[in-house]
Amino acid sequence: MAQLGTLExxxxxxxxxxxxxxxxxxxxxxxxxxxxxxxxxxxxxxLWRFGDVRPLLxxxxxxxxxxxxERRVLFLADPGRGxxxxxxxxxxxxxxxxxxxxxxxxxxxxxxxAARIVVEGEGAYTVVDGEKLxxxxxxxxxxxxxxxxxxxxxxxxxxxxLDALDLPLxxxxxxxxxxxxxxxxxxxxxxxxQVEYLAAGLAPPRRRDRPAPSAFxxxxxxxARTEAALRRLAEHNGGEPVELDYVNPExxxxxxxxxxxxxxxxRPGEQRRPAQRSSSAVFHxxxxxxxxxxxxxxxxxxxxxxxxxxxxxxxxxxxxxxEPAFLVRIHDAPLQERLGYYExxxx
Length: 347
Ligand code: GTQ
Fold this sequence. Notes:
The strands form 5 sheets. The chain has a 6-stranded antiparallel β-sheet, with helices on both faces. A 6-stranded antiparallel β-sheet has the order 2-3-10-5-8-12. Strands 7-6-9-4-11 form a 5-stranded antiparallel β-sheet, with no helix packed on it. It is about 15% helix and about 30% strand. The chain has helices spanning about 10-20, 30-35, 50-65, 165-170, 225-235, 335-340; strands at about 45-50, 75, 95-100, 105-110, 115-120, 125-130, 130-135, 140-145, 150-155, 160-165, 180, 220, 240-245, 260-265, 270, 275, 280-285, 290-295, 295-300, 305-310, 315-320, 325-330, 345. It has a single domain, classed as Jelly Rolls. Bound molecules: 2,5-dihydroxybenzoic acid.
């Protein structure tokens, strides 16, 4: 492979003339933009223990009233990008949001898409385009880009949930903004996961006045069903990895356009060594304990912890103890598939 020329090799007057003209030579920077065989990754794997984040979040509840926060959130900052980085990986923003009893977070809609995973507490709800979505621990709740959403809390203790947004991508695209509105009046009926899409394989029929389903027909994926499905699959899949993707029940496609959500069960004693994936990921532990080594860094995790993985990471999971572990892998494979470059490499 040819050694490319450097900037320093070029005459000073030529470099200055290029700068004045607002242009630059490609070749000194060619390998930064197009490294050989695999991307140069910035993301550094990190473990955020819930036990460290929770007291800081509760303190935010004392320091900052929700009216002055709009959303009371502490975000996970990728150490590869520095303390202020509002991103856990190149594409994924992950925040932990606190709502105290009786509080509401006003309605807004924005260009990025979001999904929540409920981490602690009961009695909160999100209203998405008029549909009231109860939030129970482990539930995955979608707020796709362009959908109005506000949050409320009728319970007695603080509620904490995880927010996953494709915000960094939209900021990079110069396409990120929000529109504000007053609280919505929810429709008085259960959400679609409890009505139209109660059972897998059953969907409302097409009608002349409703020839196509909505783009996001089901906004809530109750955890109880996910865990039951994983446990059942584990009994009958011959020791294969126990994983289920959260999909749009009408199309089978990922439930949001750029972000993927994969529910994982690790059996007691199970060790897993997945292929290197081109996607980046944040793992959220719903239940269980274990250790995951990512690019040589060992993370010992427990319930409600989060840890990140850069593209093409070497990942080794191991469960601790006699109970299975349940995790949700939040990733950007759907975006990469749409862009035509998602890839897995055997290790
Ligand atoms: O709850 O709507 O963590 O708009 C960041 C931006 C949460 C939300 C975040 C948001 C929200």
